[in-house]
Amino acid sequence: MNDAELHTALDRCRDAGDAVRMEGFSFHLSGYAVRPRAHLAGELVDLCLKARAMGLQADRISIGGGFAVDYVAAEDWARFTRTQGPNDYHAAKSFSTSDFYPYHSPVAGADALRAILAARPDGGGTALADRLRDAGIMLLTEPGRALLDRAGCTIFRIQGVKDRGGYAILTVDGTSLSLSEQWFNSEYLPDPVLLPSDGRSGGPPVRACVGGATCLESDMLTWRKVVFPARPHPGDLLVYPNTAGYQMDSNESPFHDLPLPLKVVVDEADGRIRWRLDRRPPC
Ligand SMILES: Cc1ncc(COP(=O)(O)O)c(C=O)c1O
């Protein structure tokens, strides 16, 4: 909402009396920067005070998500972004650094929230935490990816291995729709782990990209030529780590006549690791 719309909305909430409970304001910003979040949160505190002066409840704000996940150390991310180029990808595809999720973030997860709360929204003056406390405003957050950091993995079975002079193309029983960064013309960069079906190990390392099971040449789960410690074989498993946040199957459909991937819940009870299928009732 722009300022005029906000103004109108507040007037209508006031006029609606008991029919509407106006609890507060929220935003969700793209990106992962601390300062714009602190700044906008400060503006919402002011808006709450204004709304209260109109007799509205306005006692909470939500600052959405966008708390980064720090996947790798600064020097590793700097080296990758400095050196990566078309040679590293199938079909000489190119990615610029801004195409990728920021896999290193100096301030991440709960520390990002701490930094937002410690920041001074208007440059000087009071920290956001104190402004919230002084105004009696509850802070709500909606962390997505950061909340699921180190949770979940996605497993594909290798169906075929094609040699392409210097690297291989693995084809798997899934599609690029299973790794959501692919929808944004980006790449999920954590290396998939190879689990050989016969337990073999060793052998010269092999570079391979990973293709999906549809007819589209662009259906790639991983364009990057990942270095595997041994030659992958059909029947081996590829395990993509840390995929609970976003790398889900919400875009997959039965359109290709492929079964929708099963979801397995692993938990611990009475000292034993147990698993079960996570079945959602049909919509
Ligand atoms: C309204 C809203 N809140 C929270 C999130 C979660 O963001 P993140 O995963 O970056 O924490 C999103 C993501 O798009 C969103 O749209």
- Biggest sheet features: 6 strands, mixed
β-strand amount: 15-25%
* Global morphology: elongated
pLDDT averaged residue by residue: 93
CATH architecture designation of the largest domain: Beta Barrel
Overall tally of domains: 2
CATH superfamily of the largest domain: Lyase, Ornithine Decarboxylase, Chain A, domain 1
How far apart lie the N and C ends?
A: 32 Å
What proportion of the residues is helical, as a percent range?
A: 10-25%
Structural class: alpha/beta
Q: Just give the CATH class of the largest domain.
A: Mainly Beta
Individual helix count: 5
SSE topology string: HEHEHHHEEEEEEEEE
Strand neighbour order, sheet with most strands: 6-9-4-5-7-8
Q: Number of DSSP strands? A: 11
Bound molecules: pyridoxal-5'-phosphate
Weakly predicted, low-confidence segments: none
Description:
The protein is an alpha/beta fold. It folds into two domains: 3-69 and 105-147, TIM Barrel (Alpha-Beta Barrel); 151-277, Lyase, Ornithine Decarboxylase, Chain A, domain 1 (Beta Barrel), CATH 2.40.37. 22% of the residues lie in helices and 21% in strands. The chain is built from five helices and eleven strands. It has helices spanning 3-16, 34-53, 74-83, 109-118, 128-135, and strands at residues 24-26, 60-62, 138-140, 153-163, 168-172, 193-195, 206-211, 220-228, 237-241, 264-269, 272-277. The strands form three sheets. It has a six-stranded mixed beta sheet, with no helix packed on it. A three-stranded parallel beta sheet has the order 1-2-3, with helices on one face. Strand 4 (153-163) and strand 5 form a beta hairpin. The radius of gyration is 24 Å and the shape is elongated. The protein starts with a helix and ends in a 6-residue tail after the last strand.
